[in-house]
Amino acid sequence: MRFVLACLLLTAACCWTPLGAATAPDPTPAQIDEIVAKFAAKETEFAKARGNYTYRQHAKVQELDPGGNPQGKWEEVADIVFTPEGKRTEHVVRAPVTTLQNILLTPEDLQDLRDVQPFVLVTSELPNYNIQYLGREKLDEVSCYSFSVKPKKLVKGKRYFEGEVWVDDQDLQIVKSYGRGVGVQKRNSDDQYPKFETYREQIDGKYWFPTYTIANDTLNFKAGPQKIRLTVKYEDYKQFKSDTIIKYDTDDVKKNEPPYKKPEDH
């Protein structure tokens, strides 16, 4: 996101306090490598499975005054569906005219919304990240491994997740992520990206699906600080049944992006 007077965006997330540490011993370095490989393989399975589900995504970004009261707002409700030919596409159900005054969504924000905030760490992406084991924790009653995840190198045009993930130590799937989207910054830009928390739930009894993302943060633009709140709800997951090969229609997605233009740098 970019501040309109100078440039501002979305960020930070709610602080979370673990309910208690798991009592099982920490794995050895060799076991950690095996755990990472196994949970990335499970995440790869999940990514393929989620690609066969329709769902509704309700995203909202709000500007907040210094007291935390909502002011301007951007909102979009979209259904991720399939055409009769089996193409996966995004259909915008509702997109009111934005009332944001101090910030502006950029293409990078929209990319984070679709790809980074519902973060999935698949096997093919492992070489792009440094992954460090942090310990064991419990999320509610779920015993988890905690890992720090940071990109090794930023490649122009690509967005990455940087933060922490919690992996169920039984299902070996991510159940929560906390961090921000990162990428190569344009020279002299003042784009800011919020920290967020994404929670997952078991939808089909097998895989953990993203169901809620939240960010409450103050973005420190050159023109001054701006409080924002971001919420994303992923609802009504339904499995798509078809023998047709599924293709993701990226052209349709681009057509449905809000017609925002970046303000000129000041």
List keywords for this structure.
266 residues; mainly beta; eleven-stranded mixed β-sheet; two-stranded antiparallel ribbon; 13 strands; disordered C terminus
Description:
The chain is mainly beta and 266 residues long. The protein has one domain. It is built from three helices and 13 strands; from the N terminus they run E-H-E-E-E-E-H-E-E-E-E-E-E-E-E-H. The protein has helices at residues 29-50, 107-116, 250-255, and strands at residues 2-3, 53-64, 70-82, 87-94, 103-104, 129-139, 142-151, 160-168, 174-182, 195-202, 208-221, 224-239, 247-248. Strand 6 (129-139) and strand 7 form a beta hairpin. The longest helix has 22 residues, at 29-50. The chain is globular, with a radius of gyration of 19 Å. The two termini are 15 Å apart. The model is unreliable at 5-22 and 243-266 (pLDDT under 50).
Domains (count): 1
> How many beta-strand runs?
13
- Please provide the ordered H/E string of secondary-structure elements: EHEEEEHEEEEEEEEH
Amino-to-carboxy terminus distance: 15 Å
**Tally of individual helices:** 3
**Main sheet summary:** 11 strands, mixed
Mean pLDDT: 85
Radius of gyration: 19 Å
Helix content: 10-25%
Largest beta sheet: strand ordering: 6-7-8-9-10-11-12-2-3-4-13
Any low-confidence stretches, pLDDT <50, length ≥5?
5-22, 243-266
Tell me the structural class.
mainly beta
**DSSP strand content:** 35-45%
Shape call: globular
